Each structure stands twice: as C-alpha cells, then as structure tokens.
Amino acid sequence: MASFGVTRLFLKNGMPSKYKTKEPCPECGSKDNVAVYDDGHKHCFGCGWQFQPKKIFKKPTYQPMKKEWKPITAIPCALPKRGITKETCKFFNYGISQFNGTDCQVATYRNQSGLVAAQHIRFKDKRFIWKGDLTDIKLWGQELWRQQNTGGVFVTITEGEIDAMSVAQATVSASGNYFPVVSLPSGAQSATKFVAANLSWLSQFVRIVICFDSDSVGVDAAEKVAKILPTGKAAIANLPRKDANEMLLAGESELLRDLLFKASPIRPDNIFSAYDLWEDLVKEDNSKICSYPFPELNKMVQGYRKQSLTTICAGTGVGKSLLCREMAHHFLVNGLKVGWIGLEESSKRSMQGILSIALNKPLHIDEKAVDEKELRQAFDYLFSDNKFVLLQHFGSLDPDRLIDQITFMATGEECDVIFLDHLSLVVSGLSDGDERKQIDVCCTKLRQVVEKTGVGLVMVSHLRRTDGKPAEEGGDINLAALRGSQSIAQLSDLVICGIRSQQATEKSNELELKVLKNRHSGCLGKADKLEYNEATGRLTPSLHNLL
User: Fold this and answer.
1) pLDDT digit string (tens) for 205-219?
2) Is residue 141, in this structure, part of any structural domain at all?
3) Separation CA 140–CA 137 (nearest Å)
4) Please, are residues 499 and 511 in contact by the beta-carbon 8 Å criterion?
C-alpha cells in the first residue's frame, strides 16, 4: 500500500487515523483512488477531493498542489503485457519510473499553455495517483497533433492512455506516421467535462471518432459526448471486445483500424436518407380528411389536411370568428373531433355560436329563439361522443401554457383540428413589450406542435395598420399586412384573408375570401364570396359567388 499506507490525516486530539479500504472518486471518476479511513474521512489521491464525516469541502474539485512539484522523469520502453512498442511509448512520452520506491508508469499532461501541468502515475496493482494541477489540462496527446500536419481530417478519442497508444499502433501508416488520437484524463465518467473543455481543438477535425470501452458506462459516455460535438462530425466505434488494447493483444489491429476509419457519422435525429423514407413515399396520403364548407376555397386548396397550420386574417369586426365557426360546424358534421380556444369569449358563447349555425338562428342575440328540446337535439347532434372540446379561458394566455393545452387536445383528447382565436391576444399580457418577438416565438412553438402531434391548427391573426386603405374599408390585403412577426406567413401552410368594406352602401354584408398562401397546391387569389344573413346568423356563399 505504497501510496495509501504512508498517508495519515490526524484528528484534533493528535491521534492518527488508519486506512481501511478504497472506493471510486465522485469527482474525478477514478475507480479506486479514494482512501477510506477508520474515522470516516476520505481522501482522493488522484484529484485531491476530501470528505469529512460532518463536513464536505465547499469546492470539491481539482486543486493545484500547494507545494511546488517536479515532474517524474520517465523512460520510454516497450510494454509487452500491453502489446505497446517502445517507439509508440517514446512518441507519446509515456514511460516507466518509480514513485516512493514503487515501480510505476507515467503519462504526462500539459495545460492549455503547453506547459507540463500534471502526471498520471499508474501502479502494477492498477492503482493510480495524480501529481500536479488538473484544472486546465488538455486531452492527453493533444499537443502532438497540429492541423497543418494532419490535415485536420481524423482524430480518435479513447478512455485511457493505453487505449490511445493501442489505436495509434493499429492505425499507423506504411510510412510509420500515426493518426491523431487523444485520451481522456480520468475515464468515461468525466468524458463530457474534458471534451467540452477542449471542444475548440476537436472541432478542427472533419471526423471525430469516439472509441470508448464497450461496457455500459463507456457506451453511455460515448453517446453523451457525441451530442456535444459538432453536428455531422461525431462517429462512435462499436468494438467487439472491451477496449482497443484488448483488440491489439488479440491480433485484431486490422479490424480495429476498419472499425475506426469506417465508423459512420452520427446523424441528427431528424435527418434521414431517401431509402429510410421509402415507406413514407409509397404510403397512402391520409392527411386530407375533409372538405371546406366553401366550394371555391375547397377547389383551390383541395380540402382540409391534418398536420397543417392555417391562418385566418381580416380587419377588425369583418367576421373572422364567424368564419371559423362555419368551418368548425362543417368539420363536426363530417365526423371530425374539434378543439376550440376562443380567448375573446366565454365557452357558453362559443357553443352558442356553433349551435346557431346548426339551427340557422342567432342564439347569441336571442337565447329564446328555440325551445330547450330543439336546442338539445342540435346539441346532441353536434357534440355527441365528446366531439367538441373547449379551453375555458378568457383573455391573454402564457404561450408555454397554451402549447401544453394544445398538445393535450391533440394527444389526450385526439382532436383532428383545433381553432385558436386569436394569436395576438395570447401574447398581449406578457411583460416583454416586443410583440413581434413574442409572436415569432409563439408561432414557432405552434408549428412544432403541429409537426409533433399531426393535428390541424387553424388560428386567427389580426392585421397591422397600413398607410393605405384599411382592411375594414375594403383595402387589399397581402402577407406583409399580417400583424407581428413574418413567421406567421412563413410557418403557415395556408393563409386565408377576408376582405369586406364596412363603409360600403351595397353588399356591406358580403365577405370575400382570398388565398394569400397555399403550400398544398400553390393556387392563389380570390375564392368565395360569402354573405352574412342577419336572420340566420350564417355566413354562406352568396349569389355573387359565380359572378
């Protein structure tokens, strides 16, 4: 017990404590470098971490040694039991020496300034200790490789120095040149910490191959490291044996070389090859599940589709909400399950609006327009089997909360289409006064929900004020008139605007639909002319629809 047995930490009464056993270090990740003493205190001879039964040091991290230290002089020589040649050891400055009279192997680490900062000392019984300062060290061997000398093409990361030298020998070129390989200072448990600290250097290479141990700890660490490396550069070598050194000793250098050089870059989760998507290509398109209630619009956009984002826009008081009610009623009648988020009205008003369409009577004006029996029949006809789901909320709504509600409607309630009336009101109560920024963030999240859940989302958007003729007076509308961020137009699959002049002496109840964006068929321009009937409360195609 050369390194553990000679060390004594004294109690306040001057009595020494005695070494009992060893265990892994929670800080540096060493497997057996923490000495446990009979009084309960612990000390890591690798990184300096300490533990007292009633006190944990405030900063359990790598600490520079208080006393100046001198690096141990190590002599490079062959390591027969590891299959490592003298030439490889010499190249990596890995050698043998003695520490406190005990034979050991020494790996020297440099800091980011290129100066010798620490040494990793390994004993025959697999114990190891650290000397020096580990706070700012490079990956082992990092200083040996420069981009101008290697072309910055290929580098391998291993768990330990022996594995790094094993990889170097397995991949050495016919001319005797080694391919770049580096090692973690303290194994897989601290992999992400040291890779992140040296990420700038690693990013110079085109391919970064992670070659960790094939045990569960190594596999998990490799996956975590791959996530922090630049997209498209990381690859994981899956070894048939425990580590690179075992493959070297088994005479499988050629296989190890192939596994490293042919390791495929890890694809991001959302990137696929064309062959991966063949089944999607030949699968029947079931996204179009219903028609629209307006014939010209339906002809132009070729029906309503799930997993789509539709924006309805028009001037104030033109009839956006009524247009949505007509669509919701049509979808309900055709068997779709509809979610409704009406932030400008109560749930009762929302149900009245859709029931009015079914009954052809404006219940929001006259609740006694029909008797309870007739109302119940219409209610059961439209809303049976819980086909209509509402969010009972009035006024502004936190965007994240809204996303949660829509996600639940889409997944928990299995809605086919969800109406949101309206977008501007969602962000109106936020403390951040940048409406454009808030709408941009909200629209992005809404689009993500649509893609993730497959639900169809119809949202109402207001128009901004323009220098020209207002929309309420029949002014023309384009995508630039959408209030707030340009993301509304960019992220929507379909944008439909309603044009109506409230100042007109004739046809003042007429609303003209215009398609501003149509990702499905590309057909743009004027669609249906709709007429509002005050007696029925309906918005239906007018006689001028064919003119």
Assistant:
1) 999 999 999 999 999
2) yes
3) 8
4) yes
